Amino acid sequence: MTFAARILTLYPEMFPGPLGTSLAGRALAEGKWSCSPIQIRDFAADKHKSVDDTPAGGGAGMVMRADVLAAAVDHAIAAQPTAPILAMTPRGKPLTQARIRHLASGPGVTILCGRFEGIDERLFDARPQIEQVSIGDFILSGGEVAALVLLDACIRLLPGVMGAPLSGDDESFEAGLLEYPHYTRPAEWEGRTIPEVLRSGDHAKIAAWRQRTAEDDTRLRRPDLWERHIGARVQPASDARRKNKD
Ligand code: SAH
What we know:
The longest helix is centred in the C-terminal third of the chain and has 19 residues, at 203-221. This protein has two domains: 3-155, SPOUT methyltransferase, trefoil knot domain (Alpha/beta knot, 3-Layer(aba) Sandwich); 188-245, no CATH class. 36% of the residues lie in helices and 17% in strands. A five-stranded parallel beta sheet has the order 2-1-6-5-7, with helices on both faces. A two-stranded antiparallel ribbon has the order 3-4. A two-stranded antiparallel sheet has the order 8-9. Strand 5 (85-94), helix 3 and strand 6 form a beta-alpha-beta unit. It has helices spanning 22-29, 66-79, 97-104, 122-126, 143-155, 203-221, 223-234, 237-245, and strands at 3-9, 33-39, 52-53, 63-64, 85-94, 108-113, 130-134, 188-189, 192-193. By secondary structure, the chain is α/β, with parallel strands linked by helices. It contains eight helices and nine strands. It starts with a strand and ends with a helix. The relative contact order is 0.13. Bound molecules: S-adenosyl-L-homocysteine (SAH). S-adenosyl-L-homocysteine (SAH) binds next to strand 5 and helix 5.
C-alpha cells in the first residue's frame, strides 16, 4: 500500500525537497509513498487570488483566510477521505513518536502548511477533524519545513524503507526513553576508548548496560520524559495506556 502524502501549501515547489533523496527518495521512486503538493492559491475565489488578509484587531503581518483554506481542505478530503488532516502550527499538540507511528500505519496524511502570522481560527472550528500539531516550541517561517519533518519521521517507518527491520525499535522515545549512546571504530580515538562492556561480546551484559545508560541519560537530560516513564511503570497497565494517549 502506498502512503499518500498531500500537502496544502503556498510553496508546492518545496516538495518532496530533501525527501526526494536518500532513504525517502528511494522509497518515493519505489512507490512506497506518494507526494502530492497542492497549491492553496488555486482555491482563492477572487480575481487577485488572495489567500491572506490583515489581522482582525490590528497588529503586524497577515492571516491566512479560512474560506480559501476550507476550500483547499475540502478538496483534499474528497480526494482521500480516510487520511487524517494535520495543520502545522506552534499552537498545536506536540508531535510524538507514538503519533508518528500511528500515522505511518495508516493510508497517508493531509498536511496544511501555514504562513505569515498563521491561520484564521474559524477554520478549526468549522473543520474539527483538522488536528493541530507542533514540531516544537520554536517558530518557523512556514509550515512546509515542519511538514517535511513529519513526513520524514513517517516514511522511515513504512514497511521496507529502512534497511534492517528492527533498526527502528530501539530508537529514542520508542520505549519512553532516550536511546543509549553509540560507539564505533577506531577502538581508541584521541586517547578515548569504547566502554569495555561493548567489546565483551556478552550480549546480556551489553543489553543491561544499554538499558541502564538509557535510563540514566533520560533522567539527566529529559526529566520530563523520565517522570512520564516512571509514572507509566507504576500505574496499572490500563491507566498507563490511557495516560499515553493524553
Ligand atoms: N504567529 C504564529 C506563528 C506563525 S509562523 C504564532 O506565534 O503562533 C508561520 C507558520 O509556520 C505557522 O502557521 C505554521 O504553519 C508554521 N510553524 C511555525 N512554527 C511551527 C512549529 N513549531 N510547529 C509547526 N508549525 C510551525
